[in-house]
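Human: Not sure, check this?
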Amino acid sequence: MSIPYEYSVVLPEGYTEGKRYPALFALHGKGSNEQDMLGLAEPLKNEFILIGIRGDLPMGQGYQYYELRSLGNPIREMFDRAVGRLEAFIEYAAEKYAVDPARRYVLGFSQGAILAMTLALTMGERIKGIVALNGYISDFVKTEYPQRNIMNMSIFISHGEFDPVFPVKIGYETAAYFKNLNDRVIFKTYPSGHEVNGANRRDVMNFLLEDRLTD
């Protein structure tokens, strides 16, 4: 099959096909690239297969997965295409590498967080957990997308208290939406802008390291 996206993979030391590993699929923000997210996830490299997925649309010095009509208003056809292609990529990579199908995670920042939360709803139990940093869930996804059961999914959502792009109010609204679907949602705010500070990163790493050991 044709590969939907360019990507970079970091395999754990001593990687062997005879073993199955938790996998983290990382989605970057608009105008960035997969190396940015792999750098964020670097502390996990000996425990997880890390797969950074590069958006296929150039933007400035980086990339994006879809374009916007205006802030918070994706071009629907491009958004739908990105969601479908990301689902296909996750299935492709899970077959190519020694991925434990019961321990697949999606991590996203900003545009990547928007997609990570959408994938949680569309893929359901095919994903064990998501981490969504400074994002939101689009209204049309809530009302028009077919949604799968996420009751058993592990969900970590965080937001910068001083985010000038997506105000923190959006973070609270997003967390409330997911808490209506799942009583295991972790939501945290940090004294930061549209970024991931040190405390946020540590909490994310600890969440993933601990959750990979749970059923």
